[in-house]
Structure formats: C-alpha cells, structure tokens
Amino acid sequence: RGKDEKHKVRMPKLRMVKEYKDKRKSVDDLERNILKFKKKMEKEEKFFRETFMHEKEIRVLATATAKCSVPSQRRADLPLTAGEQLDVISATQGPAVICRNARGRFGYVLVEHLNFR
C-alpha cells in the first residue's frame, strides 16, 4: 500500500431516518405550494383591481352558492360550477355582482345564478 492510502481517514456516512427525510420533503413541498398560491392570488388581485377599477380594500359582503354550472363568455366573467362557494365582493348597478371563487379568481356573476343564505 502506498503512503497516500495510509493517511486517509474514513468518515462514516451520516444517514437520515427515512421518516424524517420524507417529512422534511413534504414540508418543503407544502411551503412551495403555498408560495405558488400566494403569487397566483396576487396576480388575480392585480387583474381584478385593473379590470374593475377597484381601489378600496377587498371585503366580503356575503357568501353565495352557485345554482348551476355556467361557462364564462369573457375574461371579466367568472365561470361557475354547480355548488361552488363564492364570496360576493361588490354589488353593481345591473343584474350582476362581482364575486371571488375558492381559487382566488374574480369576475362578474349574474344574481340569478346565485343562491344566497
């Protein structure tokens, strides 16, 4: 054997418990998903403020449930699925209200498609 091999010190490999490693991975994934959701919410809120010219604080006036599924015709309309929970943000002059769905998207919804509690 050579002189180089004589002076090498073997360090034991530190091993993580598999449960701890999986738990740490799931926490990291959760944090990453939360950050993605927050960025998406900020983007939707920015779109809402620009499109609907809403400068005030966003407050929920009421909670409603969608009666039926309705596809959106324009970007300003909110697509609905039957039974979906919506937060009513603002009432307008016409037959529509501005709502927000669980995914954070804003849009116009006709009052006839909503069931208020």
TrEMBL record:
Quote the SUPFAM superfamilies the UniProt record gives.
Answer: SH3-domain (SSF50044)
The reply to whether Phosphoprotein figures as a keyword in the UniProt entry is yes
Q: Which UniProt keywords apply?
A: Coiled coil, Phosphoprotein
Where would one find coiled-coil regions in this protein? 20-47
Q: Which domain of life is it from?
A: Eukaryota
Q: Where is the Helically-extended SH3 domain?
A: 48-114
Q: InterPro entries of this UniProt entry?
A: FYB1/2-like, hSH3, SH3-like_dom_sf
Q: Does the keyword Metal-binding apply?
A: no
One Gene Ontology term from the biological process aspect of the record: integrin-mediated signaling pathway
What is the protein named? FYB2 protein
Quick one: which gene encodes this?
Fyb2
